[in-house]
Write a structure and sequence with these properties.
Elements (H helix, E strand, L loop, with lengths): L1 H16 L21 E2 L1 H4 L19 E12 L7 E7 L22 E7 L15 E2 L6 E11 L14 E5 L2
Length: 174
């Protein structure tokens, strides 16, 4: 009987040894929640940006772009205590290029292409989940953040189909 109790104690004790693993590191998340912020104009808070219809022949190699289209986000009524802001775009990332926004999934969608969001210079890509360039804010006028969206091929072969994408954005005050 003592042997049975010892065996049971060993089995029960071994179940807890996997729980006590050593940590390899620590990540601390820091930030601030503010009660003073700008408001987003109703005209730019929820919008549709049409990239149009583009021939798949516009993409000869991975990294080729097409259909650059301007869009903007306007901040209004910014308090004097907020000096600058940036915009962060979030959404599903393309598996072939994690800096790009993946197309909305569905039947028959285009493949080998994603959507890139660029600063207003149309050359500086803003990777998904990364802040745009910071901009100084005015408390007495509208503050317009201008961006360019483009189709970007992620493969040398692009297959035609619907090429829609969606992103959420967050205003941060660095």
């Amino acid at each position: 009987m003592n042997k049975s109790l010892i065996a049971l104690a060993i089995v029960a004790g071994s179940a807890f040894t996997t729980v006590a693993q050593a940590a390899d590191g620590t990540i601390n998340f820091t930030g601030t929640i503010t009660d003073t912020a700008c408001t987003i104009s109703t005209a730019t808070k929820n919008q549709t940006v049409s990239l149009g219809t583009v021939s798949k022949t516009a993409f000869a190699a991975a990294g080729d772009t097409a259909a650059p289209t301007k869009f903007s986000i306007v901040l209004q009524n910014c308090p004097t205590t907020v000096a600058s802001a940036a915009v962060k775009f979030d959404g599903p990332i393309d598996p072939n290029n994690t800096k790009l926004l993946a197309l909305t999934s569905g039947t028959g969608i285009a493949t080998g292409v994603a959507v890139g969001i660029y600063e207003k210079d149309a050359a500086t890509l803003i990777p998904i989940a990364t802040n745009s360039a910071s901009q100084t804010l005015s408390s007495t006028a509208d503050n317009t953040f201008e961006f360019i969206a483009k189709y970007v091929s992620t493969s040398a072969t692009v297959v035609s189909g619907p090429a829609n994408a969606a992103t959420n954005f967050t205003i941060s005050y660095p």
